[in-house]
Specification:
GO terms for molecular function: ATP binding; kinase activity. The chain is α/β, with parallel strands linked by helices. It has 34 helices and 47 strands. Among the domains are: 87 residues, no CATH class; 372 residues, no CATH class; 178 residues.
Amino acid sequence: MNIENNKYISEFHARSEVFRKLMAYEIKEILLIASLYDMYNMEESGSLTSKIVNEYNGMNLSHPPSVSGVSSVEEALSLLRQKEFDMVLIVPHLEELDLFSLGKKIKEIKKDLPVIIISPSIREIYALPENVLGECIDNIYIWSGNSDLFIALIKNAEDHLNVDQDTKLGNTRVLILVEDSPDYYSFFLPIIYKEIVTQTQALLKISLNDNLKLLTMRARPKVLLARNYEEAIELYEKYRSFLLCVISDTRFPRNGETDPEAGIALLSKIKNENRNVPLLLISSESENREKSDTIPAVFIDKNSSTLSRDMHEFFQTHLGFGDFVFCLPDKQEIDRAENLLQLGAKLPKIPKESIAYHADRDHFSNWLMARFEIDLALKFRAVKSSDFNCADELRQFILSNINELRKKRQKGIVSKFNRDHFDPNIREFVKIGQGSLGGKGRGLAFVFGLLSKHEELQNNNSSINIKIPRTMVICTDIFDDFVAMNNLQGFSKLGFTDDEVKEGFLNAQLPEWLIKDLEAYLAQVDYPLAVRSSNHLEDASFSPSAGLYKTYKLPNNHASLSVRLDHMIAAIKLVYASVYSEDAKLFSLNGSNQPFTTSMAVIVQEIAGDHYGDYFYPAISGVAQSYNFYPFSRIKPEDGVAHFALGLGKTVVEGGKSLRFSPKYPNIIPEFSSVENILQNTQNSFYALKINNNLNAHQHLNLEKRTVNDANNEFPVQTLASTYVLGENRIRDTWDMPGPKVLTFARILKYNMPPISGLLTELLAFGSKSFGTPVEIEFSVNLYPDQDRKTDFFFLQIRPMAIEENQFKIDITQQEIDHGFCFSSHALGNGINDKMTDIVYVKPRDFKPEATVQIAEEINRLNSQLIQQKRSYLLVGPGRWGSSDRYLGIPVKWRNISGAGAIIELRNESINADPSQGSHFFHNITPLGVHYITVDEIRKESSTISNDYFDWEWIESLSAASETTFLRHIQLEKPLMMKINGRNSQCVMTMKK
């Protein structure tokens, strides 16, 4: 069956701005007119001010009304003329007080100001004229010492003023109380409001965040009081589409005279027209119980010794304020659900006849109404079991709509983890703790929220699901407590090896409550997990530290929950330990961020990918940047750049072999300019997660580097690979033919299936606008054999790019270019560096690609010597600096080159690798003032001729201060002069005169 959705009001999550407009009128200033004794009596018993403040605090309302007290009519009228009040309360014990006259004068000052009489006894108001109510006095209450009355009368006044707008804007529910006796409505209203407040507070405990808590409070039902039949009918007719319930006395005025059966007539009319609205008949005449059965309506005797309890039971049982009680048609209870999570979990096991029984009596609808889930309640109310082909179809309709509501209500919201209410398919982003989410966590949460607000991104890319992986963040305060509790602060000092730090952290204890939360989390999560760092400065625009801290990947598939929990605890401790690793300490010192101030959040995140035999990996991992430091062909820097790789993202972010292209021009690929170039530059290995349980503390031990040929029969390779036809010396864009397979990503880049390139262009523009600066996105893509299934695009990270602002103009003259020893048209930064006194370079004739690890070790030793001598140096060498692939560049880490003032990446025949701008190493060194220059010695890239040069003849003519197997170290008599023009990315280096 297809239920038309358009007839219903839009879903809850999309109406948050509407809900903010609810309860627009709030009573903030109250004028109390009473004798000094009455004011003292109210305050002495703690009944007025303190009760108001306490009740507002209990509902998380931050601004309780302020009460100003006066003890004379003259003073009251004078104050009303001077100050704005929202309500006037009068206790009729003042000497020479004429309530009718006073009420009239107050209305003359402010016509719509609620004027309410509070009397200790009903006898004191008998003398009032019959027309006083409505003309001069808005209501009369009898105060018998019940302090709850003050909250009830304030809220009731607000409800009468807000009900029109709130029902129109927010579909808010309305409860009508019909009672003419001030004694009784002064008794019933506090009970009703207390039930609503209690229900609201219960919902606040499971609300996802503070925003939804505010919406929950504002969406509460409105309570309207009618004193006669005509008022009741008027309210019913006006708000019949919004009725939650009608509670009516039996005997009250009708047509100007007391009618002993007015309530029966009223409820009978409502039942005939609105059959499933809950009705309650109250009466002090017990014989009316039988008459209530003819309506039918629930009956409560006013003379009952358990009247308050009876009212509570009515709200719990008939209005759905309690558990949802599953019954059979004979009313035999079979199960209960406390909340939506439990309701959805138990529905599949409930007998068919029970589901039909509840659906046909609007029990599901009423229960949802009590939880302010108005739209879904209305949707359920519009259908009956007869609308479906079978009970299972009805069950699925209810279940799917409940799950959809929970998902949409969660969309874009970072909620607090609750071990009793956690469902990873609903609460996709949760946090544990009260501190910061850390740098990565902030970026993810920011995107998570933006995606929910900007649905045009999804609408523009209908064949792709844009999402972030399901995420849990353990906030920074837990790291701080963990370090303090286990006395680990000493590891912040230099001198400890990484292994010593790891051992210290692994032997420390996490809080017991956190372990219980992690156990509850893992009990619901059965997919592979990445345990990642989220340092408080990580990915910040002023000090990014991408890739500096550790990530651990867990298969999370062991049959024993306790084993999986042990794996998780160890991974978290090791991520914490990476804060005090040698690399992190050196990086922090260089970035003017002392290690002991460092705090760490931990991201536990679903690994994007799919199972392929004994392995798990995504079809594509990549990095995209909105600014391209190394544009090619007709591509401009602002067109952006992206890197694709098969498998997990380690290939790209650690500088491995990947495919570089501009998302705006995906068919322009310089590395694929010929068949020979394709065969030379294509990715031939990738990383996948091994699905086994033999875990180790090493961060990448669970990953396996596989060849593309090994995965030849797996769907991602079949989809993304082309075939090299040897006899034709040609690449054909299909996997399904004989010949070696070559990863070209042609299906996506050439045939736009799916349109990932266009999506990246849109996301980069969107991200740059949102951050106010160029951004870098890490992502993964899942492709599926089922053509009807959408492609999944996962945001893994988004961060600002480290681009120096061009705060001053740097001019590079032609004379400097002609007489310099180095020129580049691909330099990062802007400014002048005249502090470098040394040059360290890899000797071209001695370089061997297989020796890059040894070269890195030699650089590390020389770097330490120069740091001790406080000599800044220029580092020069071939390929991608910091690459994890030793054949694409020299695999240095930050600690190995921390004394360098600038680095030159040579593109030549030794290693003809693409620029390294997708790597974490590249991302981190630029904001620390280490300029990165690429010199293209190949002399051409596609159709663009390179004017870059490095004067080898001059540099080799200089005397060496020292030499190693692969390095030569020059000490200059004077510092060299390096100038970088950030506007055109040019760099020139000369010797100072």
